[in-house]
Amino acid sequence: MDRGQVVQAARPDSESAPSILSTNVFQKLSILDRLLTPAILLAMIVGVLIGEYVPTVQAAFDTARFDGVSIPIAIGLIIMMWPVLTKVQYETLPQLFRSSGMWTHIGISMFFNWVVGPLVMVGLAWATLPDLPTYRTGVIMVGMARCIAMVMIWCQLAKGDGNYCAILVVINSVLQIILYSPYTLLFVNVVGGRGVLHTHLDYGHVALSVLIYLGIPLVAGIITRYTVWVMTSKAFLEDRFLPLFGPAALLGLLYTILVMFAYQGHHIVQNIRHVFRVFVPMILYFVIMWSCAFGLMYWLARRSSNSRAFGYKMAVVQAFTAASNNFELAIAVAIASFGVGSDEALAATIGPLVEVPVLVALTWVALYLEKRLSWRSPNEADSDTSLRALSDK
């Protein structure tokens, strides 16, 4: 068999390649990552059943509230973020900020998050819910809240760059304090024409929400990381502590989903027809935003002379940062503005109910595309081919 036949035999044909790649992606996931999707679906189902058949569960959750959100939900969100933010290599951040590429990625992220995202959500809300103004308002409020929490989970699952993701999350958090109130007032009152939100939205409320859901786990993550590092060693931190501590984030995610679905389970069942209608703009929003950001990064990687600056890891960061939303903030503000039993609060709650399964599915898509697509520019590929040819000689 000559060399060409060997190469041809080693290369899967076009029909079998997708299934082989899918199998390879699945095999590279840890056992926890493999079980996450069915575990999330099970948590959703159990949560809805609890909410429907245990009518006192919402009142039990509401006995302890903070910043308009049930404390059991707040605890889950904080636990979910703590291990993820412990993994961030804060010691490398100053070097990243000195890179010109970092500022390019910040600009791309800000464009998707604060220009494209809100406009897309408003357009989809009006296109799909023209006769349901209360639900439309809740959907718009979700679109205005840029993600500062779960994007770290999706980035971790899809093998993105955690350090860059942490930087974008922090920047979005600061901008959220400044922009969430005027954005929501603009798109609900002025563009939406409802004229109902005037007194409940203020900078202090948004800042407090950011402090709770990012500040607390961020401080806890920094303290945990460097305490373990100082008391043991960096090798112990990276090789032994973080692999044991990391799964707590997924457990926190499952706990949060279970509690949230139980909290709104009865309301979901009683308004099931409207709930399914709210699914439509949410699903379209997550898919459109993720696809646009991921596609742009792939296009840049293919055109750039240094594809690593726009490679797969950064495509994951940009795609999930653009597609994710800060549902905890949207829910808290909707409850404070309209009440816990309002249509607006229900629509805001539907946000994470849709976001979780859709973005879990998109993590699988991302992992598949990492292997399926070529992330190097043609010039780099030609250069590698030339080097291999020279080495063969």
From TrEMBL:
Tell me which Gene Ontology terms the entry assigns under biological process.
response to arsenic-containing substance
Q: Which GO molecular function annotations are given, in alphabetical order?
A: antimonite transmembrane transporter activity; antiporter activity; arsenite transmembrane transporter activity
Q: Does the record bear Metal-binding in its keywords?
A: no
* Gene3D superfamilies with a match to the protein in the record: 1.20.1530.20
Alphabetical UniProt keywords: Arsenical resistance, Cell membrane, Membrane, Transmembrane, Transmembrane helix, Transport
Give the superkingdom in one word: Eukaryota
CC annotations in GO = plasma membrane
| InterPro entries (UniProt xref) | Arsenical-R_Acr3, BilAc:Na_symport/Acr3, Na+/solute_symporter_sf
Q: Which Pfam families match?
A: SBF
Look up and give the membrane topology term: Multi-pass membrane protein
List, alphabetically, the PANTHER family matched. Answer: ARSENICAL-RESISTANCE PROTEIN 3, ARSENITE EFFLUX TRANSPORTER
NCBIfam families linked: acr3
Which family is it part of?
Belongs to the arsenical resistance-3 (ACR3) (TC 2.A.59) family.
Protein name, UniProt field: Sodium bile acid symporter family-domain-containing protein
- In its UniProt entry, the species of origin is given as Mycena pura
